[in-house]
Automatic annotation (TrEMBL):
Source species of the chain: Candidatus Mediterraneibacter tabaqchaliae
This protein's name: S-ribosylhomocysteine lyase
Subunit-structure text: Homodimer.
Catalysis: reaction(s): S-(5-deoxy-D-ribos-5-yl)-L-homocysteine = (S)-4,5-dihydroxypentane-2,3-dione + L-homocysteine
Annotated function: Involved in the synthesis of autoinducer 2 (AI-2) which is secreted by bacteria and is used to communicate both the cell density and the metabolic potential of the environment. The regulation of gene expression in response to changes in cell density is called quorum sensing. Catalyzes the transformation of S-ribosylhomocysteine (RHC) to homocysteine (HC) and 4,5-dihydroxy-2,3-pentadione (DPD).
Primary gene name: luxS
HAMAP family listed in its UniProt record: LuxS
Length: 159
């Protein structure tokens, strides 16, 4: 079998950032898949499932309610390796195009107070596996370390 594209990226040189993972034509539009890489693969510890799950709930809720992007969001969810998230948007985008959106989303997560949306037995298949304080910490860290002054090396995959 052929390697899928995401397995051809040099994960040893990959740093936290926002990357276009792929673009797929579907009917008359393009679906852009973003790699929202929060930790340095194979270098930093991966995120635990509870905070990943919390970020997923908060991020998906934020995105699907965003005035500009809500009708373009196809999917937001975690990578299996627990180093980041995938965001799929309808439209042909570059990484830099969504930096403002990601700043808004991670600021929302970093400042979130209250009940996590969808964190009930009725709404979620594993509602007890949540960690809001750690999700907020990771969101603040990503904002400060990556999004506030994002560089080109954090917007394009390493060659």
């Amino acid at each position: 079998m052929n390697k899928i594209t995401s397995f051809t990226i040099d994960h040893i040189r990959l740093v936290p950032g926002i990357y276009v993972s792929r673009k797929d034509p579907v009917s008359d539009t393009v679906i852009t898949t973003f790699d929202i890489r929060m930790t340095s693969p194979n270098d930093e510890p991966v995120m635990n499932t509870a905070e990943v799950h919390t970020i997923e709930h908060l991020g998906a809720t934020f995105l699907r309610n965003h005035e500009t992007y809500k009708d373009r969001v196809i999917y937001f969810g975690p990578m299996g390796c627990r180093t980041g998230f995938y965001l799929l948007l309808a439209g042909d985008y570059a990484s830099a195009d969504i930096v403002p959106l990601m700043k808004e989303m991670f600021a929302f997560i970093a400042g979130f107070e209250g009940e996590i949306p969808g964190a009930s037995a009725r709404d979620c298949g594993n509602y007890l596996d949540m960690n809001l304080p750690m999700a907020k910490y990771l969101a603040k860290k990503f904002l400060a370390d990556v999004l506030t002054d994002i560089q080109d090396s954090q917007l394009y995959y390493p060659e």
